[in-house]
């Protein structure tokens, strides 16, 4: 890889040990993936925030880097708890102390504690053609596909390194040739709900692995649907980008010649729903909405469904969103509707990275395919995957 | 007799010590105990052996990206390998080696190492010295 004199100097330690370590990470990745050079970036999303995930090792690492400031706008992924309402969630003091220490270490470097997997819904939204370095697989897939920005699937340390240096190695999804479709999927199934798109993503992710699917046949999908599709594709396969005919910004300029094609039928949709659930009936301890973090329209949907009803006595309804969305939802009245019905709304965190095993939940209903994929192993719970309507209904009845 | 093998530098630095060799890939997350440096993955050929203080030779990394933090923690605890040679580096181990300041090289011209051999890594010039 070709380095500039300045980059060479940074690598030799001329600008201190933290920058030296940061650029060494970027150069090593560049060598491994045969990048020609480092390129400037305009935005970073940093994963590796929950104490449950990164532990004391992660905390020490971030502290060891925190004498430097980030040089481009950078935001944080969800933490393991709501930074304000963690006691109400049932988080223990020891976990909370460590979690807040991690947040402090990041914010000391100038990383903004948005603590959301949907930074693009909270004011951190790069545009078409921008080079960025994002971690958080669902946000990576959304940024590449829907926003048309360009990022690889960064890990927490490489994202932080990129934020400090302001650059990333030029390979993978930064290059036109790697943004071409590898599989055409004509969606014949009727799809409306976020969970329908999650079910598509879960099934196609397994088939396409880390390729780039090109979807056709989908009419007027909402932004929430595109978000659910991105999250499921990224969790099920290693998908960093998809195209959708007439919808995503680069779909019109790709080369589809010779690309393998398949259909996604109504039967495929039903089969995917079934495959994502580990149970179908009985008591449910917790219903979770907001993976990725609920948008304003999803908050409205839940509020409309639950308004005037009550969450069952032995069941919890947990809605996860960003702080920005929660504040707006409060002003619009959606938050009040959910809280009066006995639901709980948490920010800064999610079920996938929270220490759910501490809460004693055994059975969860969820409208997120990503959540349904991760929760059985991440939180040792049984999951029922269903539409938002079915999930809210379960919350009211207390069972499926 | 000493052999010299050319390789690619992943993490700069020099190290010399006893080789611990495996023809398998390693997931540091869930595969190695970060407080002792012992391999805890029962299915791994190095199960129950300690990688601490060794020149660890293996094919490539795999598993969760949290593995990078595990390598860092091993280094902080003084239980990390003193050097790493991979057949082919991948991001998890590469990033972890840099985080933990562990010299690391990959793509050696020949992947011919034996347990207990004294191996030196020159992670500046891309050279491995093996005392057969």
Report the portion of residues of chain B in β strands.
25-35%
* Biggest beta-sheet profile of chain A: 5 strands, parallel
- The level of helicity of chain B is 10-25%
Radius of gyration of chain B: 13 Å
Secondary-structure-based class of chain B equals alpha/beta
Task: Note the overall shape of chain A.
Answer: globular
The side-by-side strand order for the widest beta sheet of chain B comes to 1-8-7-3-4-5-6-2
Mean pLDDT of chain B: 95
| Nearest-integer average pLDDT of chain A | 96
- Strand runs of chain B, count: 8
Q: What gyration radius of chain A follows from the Cα positions, in whole Å?
A: 21 Å
**Cα shape of chain B:** globular
Tally the beta strands of chain A. 14
Percent in helix of chain A: 40-55%
Helix count of chain B, per DSSP? 2
Largest interface: A-B, 20 and 23 residues
Total helical elements of chain A: 15
Overview of this structure, please?
The complex is a heterodimer of chains A (400) and B (132). Chain A has 400 residues and is of the alpha/beta class. Chain A is globular and about 65 Å long. The mean pLDDT of chain A is 96. With 132 residues, chain B is of the alpha/beta class. Helices cover 14% and strands 30% of the residues of chain B. In chain B, strands 1-8-7-3-4-5-6-2 form an 8-stranded mixed β-sheet. Chain B is globular and about 35 Å long. Classes of the chains: A alpha/beta (400), B alpha/beta (132).
In short:
The complex is a heterodimer of chains A (400) and B (132). Chain A is of the alpha/beta class.
Topology:
The complex is a heterodimer of chains A (400) and B (132).
Chain A: H1 5-11, H2 17-32, E1 38-40, E2 44-46, H3 51-65, E3 74-76, H4 86-89, H5 93-108, E4 133-134, H6 137-147, H7 156-165, E5 167-169, E6 183-187, H8 194-208, E7 213-216, H9 223-236, E8 243-244, E9 261-264, H10 266-276, E10 286-294, H11 296-306, E11 316-321, H12 323-332, H13 334-340, E12 344-347, E13 363-366, H14 369-378, E14 382-385, H15 388-397
Parallel strand pairs in A: 2-3, 2-4, 6-7, 6-9, 7-8, 10-11, 10-13, 11-12, 13-14
Antiparallel strand pairs in A: 1-5
Helix pairs in contact in A: 2-7, 3-5, 6-9, 8-9, 8-10, 9-14, 11-13, 11-15
Chain B: E1 2-6, E2 8-11, E3 13-21, E4 55-58, H1 67-76, E5 83-86, H2 91-99, E6 104-106, E7 118-123, E8 127-131
Parallel strand pairs in B: 3-4, 4-5, 5-6
Antiparallel strand pairs in B: 1-8, 2-6, 3-7, 7-8
